Amino acid sequence: MAASELQHEQALNTFLDERPELRVELDHLNPLLAQAKGETLAQFRDERLHEAFEAEAERLGLFAWELTLQLTAATPQDYEAQRLEVHREVAEMAGMDWLEYCDLYGIKP
Fold first, then answer.
1. Rounded distance, CA 48 to CA 60, Å?
2. Interhelix angle for 41-59 vs 64-72, to 10°?
3. Which one, of 47, 86, 50, lies nearest residue 66 by Cα?
4. CA-CA distance, 87 to 92, in Å (whole number)?
5. CA end-to-end span of the chain, whole Å?
6. Distance (Å, rounded) from C-alpha 94 to C-alpha 90?
7. What separation in angstroms does the CA of 12 have from each of 42, 51, 70, 71, 76?
8. Which of 1, 36, 86 shows the shortest CA–CA distance to 101?
9. pLDDT tens, position by position, 8-50
10. Which of 31, 33, 43, 46 could form a disulfide with 39 if both were Cys (CB 3.0 to 4.6 A apart)?
11. Where are the alpha helices (DSSP H) in the chain?
């Protein structure tokens, strides 16, 4: 069960709430830069927010969906359970043995 769109939106809001300096930066983007990319200012802002979110996930050594789960899970145990569930689904879709997958990604089964 990958993170839902609603969970991701909640995670983005939490992420932004925890970074007031990023909110200020996003609220003061140059509209000409958006226009040059053929985007509305809202689209341009949304793209910058997603880039910052993904950069933070990478900095933490996480996939973006893991950061989404981390920011929306009720407890650390809930996060870990959801994270393992998604990793199991990915391993299954990839046709990989679970223990081999865990070894490859440094996951404790």
1. 18
2. 90
3. 86
4. 9
5. 17
6. 6
7. 15, 11, 11, 9, 18
8. 86
9. 999 999 999 999 999 999 999 999 999 999 999 999 999 999 9
10. 43
11. 5-17, 20-27, 31-36, 41-59, 64-72, 76-94, 98-105
The answer to whether 2 touches 89, Cβ cutoff 8 Å, is: yes
Give the type of residue at 85. E
**Could you tell me the two tokens for 43?**
């689209």
Q: What is the C-alpha radius of gyration for the chain, rounded to an integer number of angstroms?
A: 17
Tell me the C-alpha distance between 27 and 13, whole Å. Answer: 14
pTM of the model: 0.85
Range of the domain at 97: 5-105
Distance CA 16, CA 61 (A): 19
Q: Which two tokens stand for residue 24?
A: 């200020």
Report the distance separating Cα 83 and Cα 100, nearest Å.
Answer: 17
Residue type at 94? A
Are 29 and 46 contacting, i.e. CB atoms less than 8 angstroms apart? Answer: no
- Amino acid (1-letter code) at residue 32: L
Number of folded domains that form the chain: 1
Identify whether the C-beta of residue 72 lies closer than 8 Å to the C-beta of residue 12: no
